[in-house]
Amino acid sequence: MSTTATADAGAVRPRIRWGLPAYIVLVAAAIAFAVIAPKTGYILNISLQATTYAIAVLGLTVVLGLCGQINLAQAAFFGLGAYAVGLGQTDYGVNFWVCLLVGTGIAAMFGAILGASTLRLGGHYLAMVTISFQQIVTLVLINWIPVTKGPDGVRAIPRPVLFTDGSAYLALCIGVLGLLGYLVWRLRDTRLGRAMRAVRDNELAAGVAGIDVYRTKVTAFALSAMLGGIGGGLFAGGFAYVSPDQFSFAESVVFLTMVLLGGVASPIGAAIGTGLLIVLPEWLRFLKAIPGLYLAIYGAAVILIVLFMPDGIWGFVRSRLDRFKRPSAVVAVPPLQLAGGGTGAETVLEARDLSKHFGGLKAVDEVDIAVRRGGVHALIGPNGSGKTTTLNVLSGLYKATSGGIILNGRDITTLPPHARTAAGMGRTFQNIRLFRSMTALENVTVGAERPGGPVSGDAAAVVERARAALAFVGLEHRADEVVAGFSYGHQRAIEIARALASDPVLLLLDEPGAGLNSSEKVELRDLLKRISARGLTIMIIDHDMTLVTEVAHHITVLNFGRRIADGTPADVLAHPDVIAAYLGTAPDAAA
Ligand code: ADP
Ligand code: MG
Q1: Spatial CA neighbour of 430 closest among 399, 400, 392
Q2: 208 close to ligand 1 (CB < 6 Angstrom)
Q3: Which residue's alpha carbon is nearest to atom 22 within ligand 1?
Q4: Lower Cβ count inside 10 Å, N or C end of the chain?
Q5: Which of 24, 203, 223, 245 is nearest to 118 (CA)?
């Protein structure tokens, strides 16, 4: 036993211990090199550009890499920071650091506003909005001459005390880049970082798992803009001169190319992409004898990298390195605590006169459902009878056309999905919705850390609870594998574990048996019984009548959006309307 413990500890150790010291040494070496190494103005300029650009590109690692939101206005945020430092010092005599802070703040504010537009917009529309913002900023910089000095730009921008020397200033920029890079690197595995990745992977599931999707996106945009602002502010100090053309849409595209080329998923990718795109054109300058040749080679290189390394250069290297990854240690897992069976009213969920219309189609039509505490409540009905729509209205993905929903004594009719999750609703989807690029443990952790949950706020307890939930569905030993590699049945189990981890009072399952083979179905039935035995109330949609009759205490039947029967399995399944609905004959004929 003791040997196992030592082996386990040994397996866990290297991952935690090497990263940070190695990183600090690297950054310190870069700073030392910046200070000591002899350099021409040319090398200094390239280095200053690379470091300040890299800070802005880190912003794209956050908003695009972590949160999956397109931002084609990073040069505008870069420009806001640069102009704040430029104008603030030269026109208003404000201290460099104060200017940098103000510029970062202004950028963050506009970033948040841009992020707020994601409430209604996504994909191409969001891209259009960010481009429009970029164009507005450029137009203002060019045309608001009394303030911005227009196309002439701002000259003679000073550097802060102690850093007036080029080498010292470069060292400062490297230090800031090192620190921010570290923070972005750490962000990934914080609650916010997981929330961002969840939103990127599956927005709908993120909301249902308890994440405030809108706030997460706004935060991602604000952080991204802040990093743009800081990079721009340092850029202005570095080059002492800024003009509108340095912060144009074309530059935003350059920033985007940098992050995509290096690898959008990691700050290391941001650094690689920035360095490469700044240095590559310089390396290729020897070709300038033939005009245009260097641009053609440069373009071809970019296309080749994007084609053959879709995850960027670092993503490519990373996937090779991952082959040598050690399996994580097996740690003792406590049993999963489920409070769902706790005290409270007899009825967990009450929906009254619930309707959902899609134009003229009454997908759900004045349905009443009362789910009693404890036990399994089945919702059945032919295909297209409105079962999934009912679940979507209950969990807040659709707004009810009319009717009210009470969960655990609380009116949740108008709450957004994540707030319903906080109120005690857990659910899975008919088509499995996992965060596909995240590990099994990360998926379940998102559930465990929902606000107001049993362990929210305590990072160690959150992970422990997530492990317990995974163990409950029998997958703890594969906690650190990415979910895309799991079998369908196991993905279903992870989805259930994610819902269980949030400690719901009611678990809604939409056709959990769909697509499972017979042995997986046996496992599912066993799992449902174990959940039910813990006292957690389940509402399940399923076509498998064997499963339904075996586990359900109560059945509600829908047909064409209307409730046609409700009661104990024996009564409901003998009901003539139900027989008719399933056999497709008219009620009177069945009778
Ligand atoms: P079930 O889950 O019982 O098979 P659904 O709830 O998925 O049925 O669908 C009920 C009806 O509502 C179907 O006719 C379906 O086409 C329609 N429907 C479902 N979602 C939408 C939507 N988002 N827009 C329009 N019609 C929809
Ligand atoms: Mg359905």
Answers
A1: 392
A2: no
A3: 358
A4: N
A5: 203
pLDDT tens-digit readout, 176-229: 999 999 999 999 999 999 999 999 999 999 999 999 999 999 999 999 999 999
Q: Which two tokens stand for residue 264?
A: 């959008």
The neighbouring-strand residues paired with 502 are: none
Among 204, 361, 564, the mutation site with the greatest number of ligand 1 atoms within 8 A of its Cβ is 361
Tell whether ligand 1 has an atom less than 6 A from the beta carbon of residue 559. no
Residue with the smallest CA separation from ligand 1 atom 27 is 358
CA distance 394 to 391: 5
Residue type, 26: L
Q: How confident is the model at residue 327 (pLDDT cuts 50, 70, 90)?
A: low
State in Å: Cα 18 to ligand 1 middle: 52
CB 407 within 8 Å of CB 425: yes
* 444 CA from centroid of ligand 2 (Å): 24
Q: Is the pTM of this model over 0.85?
A: yes
- What is the distance in angstroms between the CA of the first residue and the CA of the last residue of the chain? 68
Q: Whose CA is nearest to atom 18 of ligand 1?
A: 363
Q: Which two tokens stand for residue 256?
A: 């985007």
Residue 260 has phi, psi (to 5 degrees) of -70, -35
The candidate with the shortest Cα–Cα distance to 368, out of 356, 359, 355, 387, is: 355
Atom of ligand 1 nearest to the CA of 356: 12
Nearest CA to ligand 1 atom 7: 388
Q: If you measure from the C-alpha of residue 413 to the centroid of ligand 1, how many angstroms do you get, rounded to a whole number? A: 20
In angstroms, what is the span from residue 384 Cα to ligand 1's centroid?
6
Confidence of residue 284 (pLDDT cuts 50, 70, 90): confident
Rounded (5°) CA angle 529-534-538: 60
- The number of helices, as runs of H, and strands, as runs of E, in the chain is 24, 10
Residue pair 377/540 in contact by the 8 Å Cβ criterion: yes
> What are the distances in angstroms from CA 313 to CA 20, 118, 189, 219, 445?
22, 29, 22, 27, 29
Domain boundaries, the chain: 19-249, 341-424+504-591, 428-503
Beta bridge partners of 357: 362
Cα 172 from Cα 178, distance rounded (Å): 10
SS (H, E, C) 452-481: CCCCCCCHHHHHHHHHHHHHHCCCHHHCCC
